[in-house]
Specification:
The complex is a heterodimer of chains A (326) and B (368). Chain A is mainly alpha-helical. In chain A, 72% of the residues lie in helices and 0% in strands. Classes of the chains: A mainly alpha (326), B mainly alpha (368).
Chain lengths: 326, 368
């Protein structure tokens, strides 16, 4: 029982970062942009928040957790939105190929994260690992009283603020996409930008806003990982392939952020299942780590085989739009 | 009357128009400007971080890339690997099949190579072993390319995400193998395979250590150029890439073309794994591919699939990467600095394609 409880807690802990990434990517993809730069953007968001908090904590005598918290979030949003803006400029204004720009952005972003994460303390004149305890504690703060209820408290109320934010954002985005006029416009652009353009929707503006917003949301996933999961420190390539899993989760969620919530917890569970399965040797553990990817592939094949209308990617996904090009 | 005036006033300052044609010289001129701008930007970034004289930084890059005979050969070796992967991706991309799975295909090819070096190293003479390695590595990569191709042909499964996921499956296959191959025990690394007898290593050709790498990839490059440009297969690939409906109408078996082309693409990427393991590092790890499968995509795309442009682009990128590794150690930064610089170069090179395809028209000054 206790083991199961820990497993669920850890699975959710793993899933939150992926959920942020997937929600951001869904919003982006609904505008017709396949942003493969999300893994890089998540690295950029993570390191920017960490650096902001680090310089704040190093610069003041008695760092306040709440101020550090705000600084970290602002830095993260700024850096990841900047990454999204770069992608938008290259793909929307300069009409470069989306896959190529996305991959270049991922190369850049991962390098950016590892470079600053690996050498920030050196650049700041210190030695060894950086750590931002005070700020991280603010991120890890649990809900008082409620988190002390046995079992239910552990299961539902034992997480930091960002975990709940991820669920709220995912639900909010589902509402936005399905129930608002602007969401409808955005979906129209993703399906057929020429028709949306003819209907008087400003295609470029929507694409820019959706991509930059999506990138900012994904960036918080990086911040979550650095602050709440790692506890305010950095390990090179520690974020690993979670960014790619976020893109895979978009498919599992069938382009609906609300589905991504449970999907992310399933992915999180599969990600750490090898620790909890008894009787695995070192070699079979490695095979067990394949599970999230294999499951994604299976889902991908099944959805493409069933070919249901409402479960398909946005029709213009991956294509640049140029009004005069028709 | 007044209405017309307001309309005229709304004309944007700049507007974009597609170019019909552009002379080759002008296109390369634009690219050259982009390269120069990217070098300036990269210099600004490096100077901001290291606070060194930018000229010294660039001299450091040149020194790191080609400063000594050995470094120059490493640069050539890495260029050849990147070129090989880009060549392998070309047929798939020409078909508009987004093979993002080169990383996985390289790893599988590399794993097959390492397996043969470990288990068959003493059983076969070196020349025979090498031939077996060539075939096995290509076969391993081919299987890894074949799987998504079958599903793409059958169910139109999204190949971008399928091949991407297979990369991580391949990575786990490699870590699985490392458990059995690790040397020394407990290190979780494979170490140099066959250091004593150099079994399964590429032999030096004409006294040049990496001669064989260069020769093999040169042959491959010319081969793929001819295959794409002059063979019936190559023609079918470009028709399928332009429009699957047209291809079907013309009586081309689209499914067969997709599967055949991905087998070829995967096989060449698998062979690149053998170039890395057998021809360079003589070991295997999850970072054997090291992101080169992704960089090669950009190389292939930017060269417009022209193999000879690919040589230039991959040489430039590797030159800068090797150079940045040098300045990173010189100024005590970590090795990821080279990824940042590569990223900056790529953004400029990707962005400049716009100015080759489109031209900007500025609003004419009516009062003049």
């Amino acid at each position: 029982m206790n083991l199961l409880l820990t497993f669920i807690q850890k699975a959710i802990g793993q899933g939150v970062a992926i959920l942020f990434g997937a929600t951001g990517e869904i919003v982006t993809e609904k505008s017709g942009n396949l942003n493969l730069g999300i893994p890089g953007i998540m690295y950029m968001g993570g390191i920017a928040g960490l650096m902001g908090a680090f310089f704040y904590e190093n610069g003041t005598e008695n760092p306040n957790g709440f101020v550090g918290f705000l600084i970290a979030i602002v830095c993260t949003l700024a850096a990841s939105a900047l990454g999204g803006l770069l992608y938008s400029f290259l793909t929307i204004t300069l009409r470069a190929n989306q896959n190529v720009v996305g991959l270049a952005l991922t190369t850049f972003g991962v390098g950016f994260g590892n470079f600053f994460g690996g050498s920030i303390s050196k650049l700041a004149g210190g030695v060894g690992q950086i750590s931002v305890k005070t700020t991280a504690e603010a991120f890890r703060a649990q809900i008082p009283v409620l988190s002390e209820i046995p079992v239910v408290g552990d299961l539902l109320f034992s997480y930091g603020f960002l975990t709940y934010l991820s669920v709220v954002i995912a639900l909010g985005m589902t509402y936005f996409l399905k129930r608002t006029r602007k969401g409808l416009n955005l979906r129209a652009i993703g399906e057929d930008p020429a028709t949306a353009d003819a209907a008087g929707i400003n295609v470029s503006r929507y694409k820019y806003v959706a991509t930059v917003t999506g990138a900012a949301i994904a960036g918080i996933g990086g911040l979550y990982f650095v602050m709440e999961y790692l506890g305010g420190t950095w390990s090179n390539n520690g974020f690993g392939d979670r960014g790619w899993l976020a893109i895979a989760l978009v498919i599992l969620a069938l382009w609906n952020p609300a589905n991504a919530i449970w999907g992310s917890f399933v992915f999180g569970g599969l990600y750490i299942l090898y620790i909890y399965l008894p009787g695995l040797t070192r070699a079979t553990q490695e095979l067990c780590k394949m599970l999230p990817y294999v499951v994604t592939i299976v889902v991908l094949v099944i959805t493409s085989k069933r070919n249901k209308q409402e479960n398909q990617p946005p029709a213009s996904l991956g294509e640049a739009y140029f009004r005069e090009d028709r | 009357m007044s209405r017309e005036v307001t309309v005229a006033k709304r004309e944007p300052v700049v507007r974009m128009a597609k170019r019909d044609t552009i002379s080759r010289g002008k296109a390369w001129g634009i690219r050259l400007i982009a390269v120069l701008l990217s070098l300036v930007t990269a210099a600004v970034v490096i100077v901001a971080i290291t606070k060194q004289n930018p000229v010294e930084v660039y001299l450091g890059i040149v020194d790191g890339a080609v400063g000594t005979n050995r470094r120059a050969w490493v640069t050539i070796r890495e260029t050849v690997v990147l070129l090989c992967i880009a060549i392998g991706l070309t047929p798939a991309f020409k078909m508009k099949f987004w093979n993002i799975g080169a990383e996985g295909q390289i790893l599988m090819g590399g794993a097959a190579t390492a397996a043969l070096m470990i288990y068959a190293g003493d059983a076969l003479p070196n020349w025979l072993l090498l031939i077996v390695i060539f075939i096995a590595s290509a076969a391993a990569g081919m299987v890894w390319g074949l799987i998504p191709a079958i599903f793409k042909a059958k169910y139109n499964t999204n190949e971008t995400l399928f091949t991407l996921m297979l990369n991580y499956v391949a990575m786990q296959v490699v870590t699985f193998c490392i458990v059995f191959w690790e040397n020394p025990a407990g290190s979780n690394t494979v170490g140099i395979i066959g250091a004593a007898g150099q079994k399964g290593w590429f032999p030096p050709v004409l006294g040049i250590t990496y001669g064989l790498n260069v020769i093999l990839v040169a042959v491959l490059t010319v081969g793929i150029y001819i295959y794409m440009k002059y063979s019936k297969h190559g023609y079918e690939i470009s028709v399928v890439g332009e429009s699957q409906n047209t291809a079907r109408y013309a009586g081309i078996n689209v499914k067969r073309v997709i599967i055949r082309t991905m087998m070829l693409s995967g096989a060449i990427c698998g062979f690149a794994g053998c170039l890395i393991v057998s021809g360079a590092s003589h070991t295997i790890s999850t970072s054997t591919a090291g992101g080169r499968g992704f960089t090669a995509i950009i190389v292939a795309w930017m060269s417009k699939f022209n193999p000879f442009a690919m040589i230039l682009v991959s040489a430039f990128l590797v030159f800068m990467q090797q150079g940045s590794i040098q300045i990173a150690s010189q100024f005590g930064l970590n090795e990821n600095a080279s990824d940042i610089i590569t990223g900056i170069l790529l953004f400029f090179l990707i962005g400049c394609e716009f100015f080759i395809n489109y031209r900007l028209e500025f609003r004419k000054n009516r009062n003049a």
